[in-house]
Specification:
single chain; 444 residues; two-stranded antiparallel ribbon
């Protein structure tokens, strides 16, 4: 608001980036300090510190990209930045919750801000449609979540995760039907939030209609927050010990892998392609939710990091290409290797990282997921995931083939220093962690 009053718009993004860098350092300072706040509603531990650090880092990169993305809409820059900050705040609450009410508040803080940003292109029908669809479907999911929390409270008399876990241990053979019903409703709600099948249908339309920068944010931070919260909910409350929850998650994982990879094969729009790609990646991460008894938090964090780096790198190239071509189709990349071989090589690396090809971090990310899943006894689901991963290589190569094998269009692509910075930082980190994963895997 002060930036608008005093016309300091040019200082908004640098100030936010500097502030996030300071917060990132303060967050790391909480490492190995297990503290509870607000009557044990929030808990700071290594899990929350690690995922909060990743969320802050991703948001920092998004803010750097926003300088050029909103260059022609400086009038509303402070509005956009404040709403993006609210999304980050909601995510941080989802990493640190130790009470179901705080989980709900975190999800709603994140979701309401996202509904606004998905429809923020006021004169674009697709953006308006994306915002409305996301709001409508998200509201239904929130109702399921809230109803589930209510039933669990009715069965246990508490919202506290530790006390809910005690209830499941002490009443293994006498658990109330209300508890199971509430648990199933909460699992359904979280499946929607992570865009897992059969609750994935909102993602392609919303990803396609939302502004490209918001699609990048949804693909990374929002998915990280949803999966971290889902994992924490399942592991902290021992929901995963329920045969009902295990069956639902197993079916959902297989459906998600199948739908995400098969539907991606026929896509011609780049953002829809990455939407279905994101659904397939949700299927891989679902294997870690199934394996929660082995506490695979390190593997989840590593995969979330690898996926985020490759996705942000892809969007750092795609956004200038979309702007130059006036289209978000895969054809926009036609002949990019002839016009800008460095950018084409970088996009190829981003696609290979998403496909899980070495030496990028995505390869080891999938390897650790498959290993954890096999150790937990989900052999058939792991085989489906491996086969799905092989299918996934094909649709990522569609973009590479367009860049190297098709005639170039006449659009002139201008890539600013901010996009270049985000691109090469992400690719460098993806290769570094792909070659030396130990620092990330061993943090828990």
């Amino acid at each position: 608001m002060l930036a608008e009053i005093f016309n300091w718009r040019k200082l908004i993004v640098p100030a936010l980036v500097l502030g996030l860098a300071v917060i990132f350092g303060l967050n790391l300072n909480d490492w190995n300090t297990n503290q509870a706040f607000y009557n044990n509603m929030l808990k700071v531990d290594n899990f929350s510190v690690a995922f909060s650090g990743l969320a802050i880092f991703v948001t920092l990169l998004i803010f750097i990209l926003s300088t050029d993305f909103y260059a022609k809409d400086q009038e509303h820059l402070s509005d956009y930045m404040s709403i993006l900050t609210f999304i980050l705040v909601g995510a941080l609450m989802m990493f640190s919750f130790s009470n179901l009410t705080m989980l709900f508040l975190g999800i709603e803080t994140l979701s309401i801000a996202l509904y606004i940003m998905a429809g923020s292109k006021r004169f674009d029908v697709r953006s308006n449609e994306a915002g409305f669809k996301y709001f409508l479907m998200g509201s239904f999911a929130s109702c399921f979540l809230l109803f589930g929390i209510t039933l669990i409270y009715g069965a246990t008399g508490t919202f506290d995760l530790a006390k809910i876990a005690d209830y499941t241990i002490q009443n293994q053979h006498h658990i109330s039907p209300l508890f199971y019903t509430g648990m199933v409703l909460m699992v359904f709600a979280m499946l929607f939030k992570v865009s897992a099948a059969p609750f994935h249908f909102w993602a392609p339309d919303v990803y396609e209609g939302a502004p490209a920068l918001i699609t990048a944010y949804m693909s990374t931070l929002v998915k990280i927050a949803a999966f971290a919260a889902f994992y924490k909910l399942m592991s902290a409350t021992f929901f995963y010990t329920s045969t009902q929850a295990e069956l639902i998650l197993n079916i959902a994982a297989i459906l998600t892998l199948a739908v995400g990879n098969l539907m991606a094969l026929s896509q011609t729009n780049f953002k829809r392609l990455l939407a279905y790609s994101g659904i397939s990646h949700a299927g891989y991460m679902m294997l870690l939710i199934l394996s929660a008894q082995n506490q695979p938090a390190g593997a989840l964090f590593y995969y979330a990091l690898a996926y985020s780096l490759s996705t942000l790198a892809a969007f750092a190239i795609a956004i200038p290409v979309f702007k130059a071509a006036g289209s978000e189709e895969i054809d926009s990349f036609n002949g990019l290797a002839k016009k800008n071989p460095v950018q084409a090589a970088a996009m190829s690396m981003a696609m290979l990282g998403l496909a899980g090809i070495p030496p990028f971090a995505g390869f080891l990310g999938k390897y650790y997921i498959f290993t954890e899943s096999l150790h937990s006894g989900f052999h058939n689901t792991t085989l489906v995931a491996i086969f799905a991963s092989m299918i996934g290589v094909y649709y990522y190569f569609k973009v590479i083939i367009a860049m190297y094998g098709k005639p170039a269009n006449e659009a002139k692509i201008e890539t600013s220093i901010n996009y270049q910075l985000v691109l090469w930082v992400c690719l460098a980190l993806s290769i570094a962690f792909g070659l030396y994963p130990a620092p990330i895997l061993n943090i828990f």
